[in-house]
């Protein structure tokens, strides 16, 4: 069962925008050493929308290869076309991928019945465990707990990443789906409270650059040591907030480059580099989180 601090991993790109596999390998080693509980490769933070299908598959498989079984790898397989999401899920079958994370279809705004049929079709096409991903702020569609409950009855749909920030959904989803249905926060700023209410962990942007603190915080939280966990969370709160000062993953890739975790903060258009106005905001957040000493050794 997946629990704890899981990272929504950035996809490092070189100065001309090609995938930087050397930096990817370094990131995997960083997370293993830090105690991260799982890696999500090529989720939306990994710029899945702008990688080609070939790149998408290669990055996931390289991540599995680099991990060598030391940490579970969850593949991002979401798409707004059901057939495309099914294709990704099938491509990762038997590759060592531990599960798939599948975002709700974006732009086309399906009904609740459309969401159910979309995820049901994916579930029936693969034996890989499926984690639903609800992030209405990015997709313009909100998968309601009642729809999640219907989907939870399908054998290989094992959990949900909830990035609504609505903490009342933890109890509602548990009531409708049962305590064994996994619930992960997709909102770093409320992630600790999410777990305190009964969630199983977080799939985090902050963990890209503060992996040791995030791993420790959620280990403490899952043991019930909330006071210690809250002290870490307070230190990281500027990151939780200001890593979204511009569209994710713009700020976190800039921060990861500043910390020497990746060689370049390159993004694929239509995303552009962090603005000069936002750089001091993210830099101050790094200072507040006491990550700045890493700059001297990067």
Automatic annotation (TrEMBL):
Transmembrane segments: none annotated. SMART domains: DHDPS. CDD domains: DHDPS (cd00950). Its EC number is 4.3.3.7. InterPro entries: Aldolase_TIM, DapA, DapA-like, Schiff_base-form_aldolases_AS, Schiff_base-form_aldolases_CS. It is found in: Cytoplasm. One of its GO terms (molecular function) is 4-hydroxy-tetrahydrodipicolinate synthase activity. Keywords: Amino-acid biosynthesis, Cytoplasm, Diaminopimelate biosynthesis, Lyase, Lysine biosynthesis, Schiff base. It catalyses: L-aspartate 4-semialdehyde + pyruvate = (2S,4S)-4-hydroxy-2,3,4,5-tetrahydrodipicolinate + H2O + H(+). It is an enzyme of class 4 (lyase). It comes from the Bacteria. Pyruvate binds at residues 45, 203. The active site is at 133 (proton donor/acceptor), 161 (schiff-base intermediate with substrate). Pathway: Amino-acid biosynthesis; L-lysine biosynthesis via DAP pathway; (S)-tetrahydrodipicolinate from L-aspartate: step 3/4. GO terms for cellular component: cytosol. The record marks 44, 107 as: Part of a proton relay during catalysis. The record marks 49, 80, 84, 106 as: L-lysine inhibitor binding. HAMAP family: DapA. Homotetramer; dimer of dimers. Catalyzes the condensation of (S)-aspartate-beta-semialdehyde [(S)-ASA] and pyruvate to 4-hydroxy-tetrahydrodipicolinate (HTPA). Belongs to the DapA family. This is 4-hydroxy-tetrahydrodipicolinate synthase.
């Amino acid at each position: 069962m997946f629990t704890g601090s899981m990272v929504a991993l950035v996809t490092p790109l070189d100065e001309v925008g090609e995938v930087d596999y050397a930096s990817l390998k370094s990131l995997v080693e960083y997370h293993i050493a830090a105690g991260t509980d799982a890696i999500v490769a090529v989720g939306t933070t990994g710029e899945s929308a702008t990688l080609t299908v070939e790149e998408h598959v290669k990055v996931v498989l390289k991540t599995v290869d680099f991990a060598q079984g030391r940490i579970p790898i969850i593949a991002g397989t979401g798409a707004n076309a059901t057939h495309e999401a099914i294709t990704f899920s099938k491509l990762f079958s038997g590759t060592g991928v531990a599960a798939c994370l599948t975002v709700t279809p974006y732009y086309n705004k399906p009904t609740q019945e459309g969401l159910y049929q979309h995820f049901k079709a994916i579930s029936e096409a693969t034996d890989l465990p499926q984690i639903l991903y609800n992030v209405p702020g990015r997709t313009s569609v909100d998968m309601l707990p009642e729809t999640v409950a219907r989907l939870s009855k399908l054998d290989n749909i094992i959990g949900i990443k909830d990035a609504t920030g609505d903490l009342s959904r933890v109890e509602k989803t548990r009531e409708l789906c049962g305590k064994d249905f996994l619930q992960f926060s997709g909102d770093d700023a409320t992630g600790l409270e999410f777990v305190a209410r009964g969630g199983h962990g977080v799939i985090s942007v902050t963990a890209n650059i503060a992996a040791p603190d995030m791993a420790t915080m959620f280990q403490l939280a899952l043991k019930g040591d909330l006071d210690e966990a809250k002290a870490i969370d307070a230190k990281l709160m500027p990151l939780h907030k200001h890593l979204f000062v511009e569209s994710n993953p713009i700020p976190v890739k800039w921060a990861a480059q500043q910390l020497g975790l990746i060689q370049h903060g390159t993004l694929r258009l239509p995303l552009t580099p962090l603005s000069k106005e936002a750089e001091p905001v993210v830099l101050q957040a790094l200072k507040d989180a006491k990550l700045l000493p890493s700059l001297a050794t990067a």
